[in-house]
Amino acid sequence: xxxxxCPYCEEDRSELEFRWAGExxxxxxxxxxxxxxxxxxxxxxxxxxxxxxxxxxxxxxxGCGRFFNAARDTVSDRFLTTYKAGLPxxxxxxxxxxxxxxxTYEATEGDAR
Amino acid sequence: MADHxxxxxxPLTGFHGGSSAVRLEAxxxxxxxxxxxxxxxxxxxxxxxxxxxxxxxxxxxxxNGRTALWLGPDEWLVIAEGGSxxxxxxxxxxxxxxxxxxxxxxxxxxxxxLVSGQGAAAAINAxxxxxxxxxxxxxxxxxxTVLGKVEIVLLRTAEEAFRVEVWRSFSDYxxxxxxxxxxxxxx
Amino acid sequence: xxxxxxxxxYRIKGAGRLTPARTARxxxxxxxYTALEGDTVASALLAHGVHLLGRSFKYHRPRxxxxxxxxxxxxxIDVSRDAARRQPNVRATVQEVFDGAKIASQNRWPSLxxxxxxxxxxFSPFFAAGFYYKTFMxxxxxxxxxxEPFIRRAxxxxxxxxxxxxDHYASRYAHCDVLIAGAGVAGLTAALSAAATGQSxxxxxxxxxxxxxxxxxxxxxxDGQNGYDWAQRTAAKLRAMPNVxxxxxxxxxxxxxxxxxGLVERVTDHVAKPGKxxxxxxxxxxxxxxxxxxxxxxxRHMVFANNDRPGIMLASAARTFLNHHGVAVGRQVGVYTxxxxxxxxxxxxxxxxxxxxAIVDNRPDPxxxxxxxxxxxxxSVLSGHAVTDTGGRLxxxxxxxxxxxxxxxxxxxxxxxxxxxxxxxxxxxxxxxRGKLRFDEANQRFLPDIYAQDCVSIGACNGTDDLAExxxxxxxxxxxxxxxxxxxxxxxxxxxxxAAEGAGPDTTVKAFVDFQHDVTAKDIRLAVREGMxxxxxxxxxxxxxxxxxQGKLSNxxxxxxxxxxxxxxxxxxxxxxxxAPYTPVTYGTLVGHSRGELFxxxxxxxxxxxxxxxxxxxxxxxxxxxxxxxxxxxxxxxxAVNRECRTVREVAGVFNGSTLGKIEVVGPDAAEFLNLLxxxxxGNLKPGKSRYGIMTREDGFxxxxxxxxxLAEDRFHVTTTTGGAPRVLHHMEDYLQTEFPHxxxxxxxxxxxxxxxxxxxxxxxxxxxxxxxxxxxxxxxxPHMSVAECSVMGAPARLxxxxxxxxxxxxxxVPADYGPAVWKAIWERxxxxxACLYGTETMHVLRAEKGYIIVGQDTDGxxxxxxxxxxxxxxxxxxxxxxxxxxxxxxxxxxxxxxxxGLLTKDPNVVLEEGGQIVVDPNQPKPMTMLGHVTSAxxxxxxxxxxxxxxxxxxRARMGETLYVPLADRxxxxxxxxxxxxxxxxxxxxx
Lengths: 113, 187, 991
Prior knowledge:
The structure holds 3 protein chains of 3 kinds.
Chain A: E1 3-6, E2 11-14, E3 19-23, H1 37-44, E4 53-59, E5 67-73, E6 78-84, H2 105-109
Chain B: E1 17-18, E2 23-26, E3 30-36, H1 42-49, E4 60-63, E5 66-72, E6 75-81, H2 88-96, E7 102-105, E8 110-116, H3 120-124, E9 142-147, E10 150-158, E11 161-167, H4 171-185
Antiparallel strand pairs in B: 1-2, 2-8, 3-6, 3-7, 4-5, 5-6, 8-11, 9-10, 10-11
Chain C: H1 3-6, E1 23-28, E2 31-36, H2 41-47, E3 54-55, E4 62-63, E5 76-80, E6 86-91, E7 101-104, H3 119-122, H4 131-134, H5 140-154, E8 170-181, H6 185-196, E9 201-204, E10 221-222, E11 225-226, H7 227-239, E12 244-247, E13 250-255, E14 260-266, E15 281-293, E16 297-299, E17 312-314, H8 315-323, E18 332-337, H9 341-351, E19 355-361, H10 368-377, E20 381-383, E21 385-391, E22 398-403, E23 410-413, E24 416-420, E25 423-425, H11 428-432, E26 436-440, E27 445-450, E28 455-457, H12 467-478, E29 486-487, E30 512-514, E31 519-520, H13 521-529, H14 535-542, H15 555-566, H16 570-573, H17 587-591, H18 608-613, E32 617-621, E33 624-629, H19 637-650, E34 653-656, E35 661-666, H20 670-677, E36 690-696, E37 702-712, E38 715-720, H21 725-739, E39 746-749, E40 754-760, H22 764-768, E41 772-773, E42 786-792, E43 795-801, E44 809-815, H23 819-830, E45 836-837, H24 840-849, H25 890-893, E46 898-905, E47 917-918, E48 932-940, E49 945-953, E50 962-966, E51 971-977
Parallel strand pairs in C: 1-7, 8-9, 8-15, 9-12, 15-28, 17-24, 18-19, 18-24, 19-20, 34-45
Antiparallel strand pairs in C: 1-2, 3-4, 5-6, 5-7, 10-11, 10-29, 13-14, 14-15, 16-25, 21-22, 22-23, 26-27, 30-31, 32-33, 34-40, 35-38, 35-39, 36-37, 37-38, 40-44, 41-42, 42-43, 43-44, 46-49, 46-51, 47-48, 48-49, 50-51
């Protein structure tokens, strides 16, 4: 179970108090009514689901109730940082992919050096 | 038919529980508001409410039977104990501030369970994942969190005493879980 | 006879740490035995010379006790107190004897000594690895009827209990600075060191007493004391410290993300008469800032022919039984080893008066110190030799010994054979924490290398064998300082992995690698020959390491044999993943408090007791218990609903609407916020009025609906569906906080603040009038879709003139505690007027008669407001709202979309089935082209016929068209109509 630092509560709390809320830094287009189908698809439907360093939103739903952003390494599940909603994307070194990209089950499983 | 005056039926009426280490009781009815204020208007609200709204996370302040619990950066739960009726005094006080805010009466939305005794923290930890050591959760600390499968607001009122605020329809469950936690805390 | 001889003929006077006078009685397969307090079932049975404890999984071979700890693969037993308190597959080496315990062997019929299933052993070529993948391929039907039942009966372990578990289980969250897993020398020392710094410490050990290896290792001294005694004193000292929690009989079974650990504490399994308040087990969910792993190591068995007979066991196990339990595992014991540790076991046994037949060491050059000690004790050592076979049926009676590389074999009589192939560091928790291992070539073992969490491994699990070095490592891990010295008698060397002499690739002997799953060295070689080259494939093909012991003894041997066959170095073959739990955990522990009434919260409205008193049947809506219908004596559901439906339209009905979601939207920008979140326009809604609103997601599909009342310029009372309340608030908060944070508005859930009593029907006004103060209820002053703050029976109330029935109706909102009193007063007045109470079923029928939709029933997440016939609720003037762009997507504006319409069956007495598919031509070939489906279907008492709503492609252009609903046994003919079946002009609502 993850331990998540809430930037509003300024404390690490159990994952039980949080809800994941999708990829971060996808702003709703200002002129949304006027954008093209392609732009809308890009905004609403398409996500990268990257392995390694990922920017995502969480909500401290059973805590302070705030949405915030997090940079997490999806391989190690380590949070590199969390920061308040509205702040610009925190640039972090691409140390995320702590394992070489492996696609097969056996390669992941038999990973002893 | 003006002689029809409604009387209150309290949740948790008839609930008893606890153990040799933990006392569990339903709190008396209280006035409560959910108060939302921007940082710049906090001071303006504090005066009329007669209580300083705490701005530090996980803290509360108490004065004159009123307690303000920090729940979020712009959110407080304000409880006036002994309030026999719906949140008039708190709603009115907030309104008197004239400052920008939102106050919603939640006096009947929540009910509270008082948990006390040397096993109080252990009983709550049967379902609450927070660190309730005095170091991490001192007297006066408060937080919205979870208790098993329900959400609660937890306030430490003394070293061995907590107030568990819970939505009324979840109160049977919360009481039941605390009762089991209390039993285990006495082992 | 003395007490000690009562507790078993193999109990050795003066040996062990148990008290001879403290006995407990138990039965094994019906026969009664005396044990000593502190005995495990294994030690107690061994004390009586009982080695045969069970039959193996596949071949039903007689099996005994292999180890003295949680790694035990063989000695699985069934333990019971009574009929309901029975647990199968318990390790006899872990289960402590309690007075009155009933122990039974497993996987045998009709008896342990004569087991019919043992015939499998004769047919063993048939059961080679992977047999079930290949043997039972054809015919297909036979799998279900013949093969699977056969395999399930023939291969298996214990039998699950059938009665509900009467025990209860506790659960607790805890936090600490340092959690130390394992309370051997390393763990205890680290705890002393950490505790001295004032950190909060959890010291956890799975055994009843601390000490770890000191249970068997009687020769080690620490601080000049006997090691085991030092351990007990140290534990007592630690327990007395306020910052230390010492948990014994507690297993750290899982090491998860971010310092989160799962522990199971066995509270009563060892107690004869547990107190009623005691939980059987307690789950600890601990968040530790730092973790110290002091989990030790596990001795491995030797892989040789017929190495599985009862009486063959690990050397350290024999030493534990002797030095801790005071039990000799035999009178004439053979030793087969590749590691020094077995020598010390032999020495201890010999000193206790047990004959040692010989130490067979497969190494050519054992250390001189050991040989000298053996000579001094009169034990003969055969170095460079191997045990190539064993004899005996239900217990080993001989070992066959031959020089490595060939030569004359000779048979030596033994009644027990103790073995050691060396020690495997317990890196399970380290690996679970996602740490990476390295292979220690010199000692043929995997050791912790790269840590993924704030964690450190110390002692044997870290490959640190030297006691002084281990103590230093432990002190450093604790972060404090402790003065401590320790001394070992012998420094251990040696060890091997893989098959020993006589069980090599050129042989066909049964040399067991995995005892619990009956996997032999031959099976692993077969897997490689069959083309399995990944250790993960080999594991699954052979099931090596897949039993409940998770291969604690077998994995390294299996890996070495596979590596040899593949001719690849061990690290290249890889290691299978260590997964939680470390040892089996009961469901009871994982479930904890979440059973019975605490399984899930049952949310009850303030009026629940009154509804119950009126005879309501309830239905679950989310977690809510909602009154479904109110049957009178003799009424079935249909009759009750028909009566309720009729009564509401003829007189009036009283309905509990409290579960409806409610959100208070407050602030100067409240209307602007609602403009963005709903498709409707809100700016022109005046205080005192309400409006039905539709909420779409960004993709344009209907997400929720509800009536929104404006109480003041800056205050709205928003209602949502019962099930939608939490997610709608979450959705609103998401937009407010992240997309529209500039708006000065706040949201508060008030669902439970208000009890809602709906009074609907022609007499609704007459019913509520006497209770309401502060509002003129006349049609002119308070027309349909009005809202007012007023007083009801002295309670501050919010009154809505609103209707989900199509009748004149009101919804009275009073603070929840007043709900019962107001409900009771209204019902007392309404009942004599001929009104009824009605439940959700009647509510559903009445709204369907009016064509009002239920989001989630008539919509399914792919329905637009226009599809649902609600285009009027979508503002065309607003520059923006959530869904504005989605609604313009080509697919959402195309012709022929499914639209909500009414359906009338040609036969008015036939009620459609919800979910029924709709087609144009019922005689077309399958698969038919489906136009849509029935979303709502009821018998309408008020219409005197059945009614239905349906989503039909191009539905609104099909008015009057005949369509068909084909069912399994018949086809129903329907006519497409509009959605309003009752009071089409809609006059009644304004009554």
